[in-house]
Design goal:
Number of helices: 2
Bound molecules: zinc ion
Mean pLDDT: 92
Distance between the termini: 6 Å
Keywords: Membrane, Transmembrane, Transmembrane helix
Order of helices and strands: EHHEEEEE
Largest sheet: 6 strands, antiparallel
Strand order of the largest sheet: 3-2-1-6-5-4
């Protein structure tokens, strides 16, 4: 028998969004500063990191995919381009399709 649940698209909550953005900002800034010590190549890389950093910090809010584990209903965050995850709660292997989570059992 297989169990199936829907994948849904959600926006992060305000506080998650805030910590996500401040992480990007802080670690991006540290990376920029370190890269800036490397002449020429590092400066270009620092500029690249800075663009990504500004986009991640001030850009549009990204949506993320979440779904409930079909077995134990634990909410799972679905990273892009991942084909399956092990549920941290019930240890089931959850297969990811375009819009569904599937557990074979
Ligand atoms: Zn589970």
């Amino acid at each position: 028998m297989e169990r199936v649940s829907e994948i849904r698209l959600v926006k992060r909550s305000f506080w998650d969004e805030l910590s996500y953005r401040s992480n990007w900002f802080i670690f991006g800034l540290i990376a920029c500063i370190l890269l800036a010590f490397i002449p020429i190549v590092g400066w270009f890389m620092a500029a690249g990191v800075l663009v990504v950093l500004l986009w991640k910090t001030f850009g549009l809010r990204e949506k993320q995919k979440v779904g409930d584990c079909p077995v134990c209903t634990q909410t799972l965050l679905i990273e892009p381009k991942v084909e399956g995850i092990d549920c941290p709660v019930c240890q089931s292997y959850v297969e990811i399709t375009d819009n569904k989570l599937i557990v074979e059992s």
